[in-house]
Amino acid sequence: MPTVVAFETLTDLFLNLSKKYANTDKVAFARKPSNGKPYEEIRWDEVYDDVQTMAAYLIKHGVEAGDRVALLSENRYEWSIVDLALQLIGGVNVSLYTSLPAKQCEYILQNSGAKLFFVSTGIQLKKAQKVFDNCEELKQVIAFDEPNVERYLDDPYVTLFEKVMAEGLKLVPELEEEIQRRSQVVAPEDLATLVYTSGTTGKPKGAMLTHRNIVSNVKAAHQMIDIYDEDRCLSFLPLCHSFERTAGYYAMMAGGAEIYYAESVDTVAKNMTEARPTILISVPRLFEKIYNLVTKSIDEGTAIKQKIFEWAQSVGQKYAAGQRGLVSLQKKLADKLVFDKLKERTGGRIRFFVSGGAALPPKIGEFFMGAGLNILEGYGLTETSPVMCCNTLGDERMGTVGKVLPGVTVAIQRLEDSQVIGELSGEDYPSDFNSEQGEILCKGPNVMKGYWKNDEATAEMIDSEGYLHTGDVGRFNRGNLQITDRIKHMIVNAGGKNIYPGPIEDLFKTSKWIDQLVVVGERQAYMAALVVPDFEVLEAHAEVKDIEYLSMEELIGKEEIQNIYRREIRSYAHELASHEKIRDFRLVPNEFTVETGELTPTLKVKRRIIEEKYGYLIDDIFETD
């Protein structure tokens, strides 16, 4: 579907939307007050005024076209105001994950040469104060929230957002013509943002994304997925990640959709019922948690309740596969008995979910599809702005990431000899096209300009023919792309066989007993796993069975608990090849989280960190062989 306004830059997008919705009641954003009151809606006229105000302040404080300004903040309205003001005057947005420690913030500020630093809360302000003196280009720190401790404001370089807006408002008459002049000269090839990789290996690299990169991706996405100006998106994935930035922010704006900000990642379930979104952008972890909550509830119910649920799932999957007639009548009953309750938990208005950032286990996708909650799985990288492929509404194929976007070319390169063995562009839709497995390559207007101040890393990522090497392994299956895993995640066992852990781990995400699982076994005779139990399920079981324990370590060490997990892991063995089967495991007494360092901010597993942190468990598995 076409975008609601024409645009060639993000600057155009903002100005044309502001003009289209001027003097109307059209809502652009909404925020949840901290006092628990209902969402506050913010209309386009207010957004336009706030962006002009911020732009005036930025200009007065020395931000020139091409200058970098950093943001360390959760998703919120103020983040959008700073970003849109930067796009308006040709500045460059450098966003940081709020989970980053001060030292990594310091590196990004130094590397990018950021002039100003916007932070959200007192916690983030502390980081800014720790590193300010070591960042020569940095002139000022602006805090969105008033810190709890007054001494934070003693430093002369720290000011509050409300003071910035008050000053900017007075400057608008003086600088209005300069703002307009700058907005008119922003070009598609100009840099819009630096998106730093999470730095799981080595120092973070800043992917340079231009206006053309992002705009081409937004327009291509709109050709694949319909977004209407009646739509509403709940935003909770980090805006500093390109997935949320493009899909949950710019693409939503381009369709005229409203963007409601979740209070936090932890409140998404509650905010869904309050915001009642029609679209939600997420990573698979959310869908896994919802699925496990539902199945846990069913498992704890009566035999009749379990039978009804199984029947409803069967009917839902038949309906999703296109069967009608009697199935249509059965589906209405299944909705009333089972699925309507699930839809109510999502706010009751979801048209579709979008899943990205990691592989969605097919069984979980099929469950949601059967319930009438469509999930459109897509694929891409920060460096591709980010979307390369996606499924479309009504043509979802679970286990694939869909078709290539218009204007984009995706190729498969054989790992053994680097020969390209399959290539599709977004204009090709051959339903019978298949290819061998290999590394996924990408070429198109969405491919980044390169890495900031890092020509060597750019040359490693983008070859002489303009193909970006993703490091992911996949194949084409009837015209759709299937992802196998990351090349660097590949495990080579003692017999020399290549094993990709991702698909193995995805199998176990439907187990009610298992919250997280990481496959290990490099150069070993068999595969093993580190298993994080679903602690809520485990503790409930212990209570029912009167199992006494003083700590989680004691509970997971008990033989009866170990036996549960032996049986559970064995039950999945028939779905795996002999060399892929999990032969042994160790239970981990705590969850892998972003805060404790085992997950990236987009909830991907940091394998190297986990293998180092729990190396003693891995050694214990294999040392007897």
TrEMBL record:
<dbReference type="InterPro" id="IPR020845">
    <property type="entry name" value="AMP-binding_CS"/>
</dbReference>
<keyword id="KW-0067">ATP-binding</keyword>
<dbReference type="InterPro" id="IPR045851">
    <property type="entry name" value="AMP-bd_C_sf"/>
</dbReference>
<keyword id="KW-0436">Ligase</keyword>
<keyword id="KW-0547">Nucleotide-binding</keyword>
<dbReference type="InterPro" id="IPR000873">
    <property type="entry name" value="AMP-dep_synth/lig_dom"/>
</dbReference>
<dbReference type="Pfam" id="PF00501">
    <property type="entry name" value="AMP-binding"/>
</dbReference>
<feature type="domain" description="AMP-dependent synthetase/ligase">
    <location>
        <begin position="24"/>
        <end position="452"/>
    </location>
</feature>
<protein>
    <submittedName>
        <fullName>Long-chain fatty acid--CoA ligase</fullName>
    </submittedName>
</protein>
<dbReference type="GO" id="GO:0016874">
    <property type="term" value="F:ligase activity"/>
</dbReference>
<dbReference type="InterPro" id="IPR042099">
    <property type="entry name" value="ANL_N_sf"/>
</dbReference>
<dbReference type="Pfam" id="PF23562">
    <property type="entry name" value="AMP-binding_C_3"/>
</dbReference>
